[in-house]
Amino acid sequence: MTREIAVVAFAQTDHRRSTEESSEVEMLMPVLHDVLQQTGLKTADIGFTCSGSSDYLAGRAFSFTLALDGVGAWPPVSESHVEMDGAWALYEAWTKLLTGDADTALVYSYGKSSPGSVRDVLTRQLDPYYVAPLWPDSVALAALQAQALMDAGHTDEPALAAVGARSRAAAAANPHAQLKGRTPQGDYIVRPLRTGDCPPVGDGAAAVILAAGERARQLCERPAWIRGIDHRIEAHGLGVRDLTDSPSTRLAAEHAGVFERPVDTAELHAPFSAQEVLLRRVLRLGDDVRVNPSGGALAANPVMAAGLIRIGEAAARIHRGASDRALAHATSGPCLQQNLVAVLEGDPR
Amino acid sequence: MPEVLQAPLVVEFPFTRSLGPVQSAFLTGLRERVVLGVRTGDGRTLVPPVEYDPVTAEEIRDLVEVAPTGTVTTWAWNHEPRRGQPLGTPFAWVLVRLDGADTALLHALDAPGPVAVRTGMRVRIRWAEERTGAITDIACFEPYDGEPGQPGGHAGEFEDPLTGIVAPARLDYTYSPGRAQSAYIHALSEQRTVGERCPSCRKVYVPPRGACPTCGVATAEQVEVGPRGTVTTFCIVNIKARNLDIEVPYVYAHIALDGADLALHARIGGIPYDQVRMGQRVEPVWTEGARYPDHYRPTGEPDADYDTYKELL
Ligand SMILES: [Zn+2]
Fold first, then answer.
1. Which of A32, A242, B98, B121 is the most buried (most CB within 10 A)?
2. Could you say which of B103, B134, B212 has the minimum Cβ distance to residue A239?
3. How many CB pairs under 8 A join A and B?
């Protein structure tokens, strides 16, 4: 029989433009202590630890090994790392729990964009032969997608501005958000995207604890059960893809069971306003679904943690009874190249 | 709290990449002002070409020339070009479907302003004057309202084809080591070595990183350690490192400073290399204006008892 696995705790930092006074481990540690405290677990009780981060943000090889100091890796722990958003680390931890090798897992991720220029750093993930030598930055690529969506009649500049405004208004109630309340739509960064259509650049970290079956019920009053989770990837060539569609998100959602019953909440990892428009359509989210009540990535986008935060925010709403069935989405790569979709549910009330 | 340190950090590397047959033909073609695509099993032509069909994963090798003219499929106006981008003046990023191709190529379009650009507009390649076999051999695209270009039927066979490219990459950072390591570096500038004590297991870590790796808790209590210490283990270096002005052979050692629960590593000097031993007592030697000890030398004290440092090996 398949094991039931749930998110039982979630914590995140306050996301800020710069945390130069802290090293990565100094930034991460309070978040790790927070999730452990929520469950009463100690490091030694955790069956598996998995993290997500990127050396390119830090500018140092194997930077994640230093962050392990915050976990307490002696005596030796069962540990793994993905050079991806922490949402993919959560996927790995979920499979580990499914095998029965562990009953609990600690998943964390972090990113400090402040030491470098994240727009330039992200160019290094592109095709190194045909694309990276042109240094197209992350905003430029998102702008190409936004224009394609506008040409296809799926959105326009006022609609995009409304996405940004709604996200930052929702973030007013989120103590961790970096940009909140009324923020001006601003000037073009790369047309058609304005400041308001783009995520803030910031530093931050997040952590969740997963637990299986009865263990989850012991650790959390209302566990957020992961009913389905799947991730898919599309061709890396931007000119091969239809930028107005996201077949990888659709497929991941089908496999995760999104379309079996309606969801009440969706936490979408859409760093750019136009991407939210696209994801809503692909995921068939109606106006009755609360989209990004946390403010989403337009309010705080710590690179490598923002996707894990979507799962954490969705789970936290289930924990506190604000949602019964929530969708969480994470993305990676240019123009929504890779997409992960999870469905989380609370026990019936 | 002392000021947190910052320093510029440049990560720069000339990545040397080898090319497969398809990428080699495409990039060699650009050098010769020929644009090649690759034909898939179902008859589509992919430009830029890839070695495997992105839909079926089938290997594809059927090269076909396409025209240097094409149509913009989407665009974005870049009024502030960044370092490394194709043009230094404001330009449009474009995806261009070249005539004869079914997919689009990313590049820059030189246009006077955003009002001069639209999806569906016709463009042509402006070639770089000096071409080496790189995507930047296309200097950019430019608006074009003439007849579609005529491909010459090139089959992708070249004399002197490229087998690899060098793709230089450079990223600039402002590195900040955080609170704990800043304090350590500050103390070194006063020729002192400070560690931090774990509030839980009481171990003293040097250099401190702000956390106890055993307990996973923050360390904050500063403890001055050394200056003397004990060699716990060592090796003899026989090969000269590039840009390092030290005569070989020399000894590199782990040194447990007095009061520290973690050994740090440093060079041993002031003694022939074959007289260094475990348990030897050493002290730092500072040179004028340096930010860290140049090396450690013997103090002349009797050797430390093995039991006093065996936990630190
Ligand atoms: Zn400790």
1. B98
2. B103
3. 184
* Phi, psi (deg, nearest 5) at residue A31: -70, -40
Q: Is B22 helix (H, G, I), strand (E, B) or coil?
A: helix
**B237 vs A: CB within 8 A:** no
Half-sphere exposure of A306 (CA within 13 A, CB side): 30
pLDDT digits (tens, 9 = 90+) for B9-56: 999 999 999 999 999 999 999 999 999 999 999 999 999 999 999 889
B249, two tokens: 């052979």
- Measure A22 CA to nearest chain B CA, in Å: 4
Residue type, B237: V
Inform me whether the C-beta atom of residue B181 falls under 8 Å from chain A C-beta atoms. Answer: yes
Residue spans of beta strands (DSSP E) within chain A: 5-12, 48-52, 79-82, 104-112, 188-190, 193-194, 203-212, 224-233, 265-267, 290-291, 325-332, 338-345
The predicted complex's ipTM stands at 0.95
Closest Cα in chain B, distance from residue A90 (Å): 21
Residues B5, B177: contact at Cβ < 8 Å? yes
Residue B302 carries which DSSP code? Answer: P
pTM over 0.90: yes
Interchain contact A191–B (C-beta under 8 A): yes
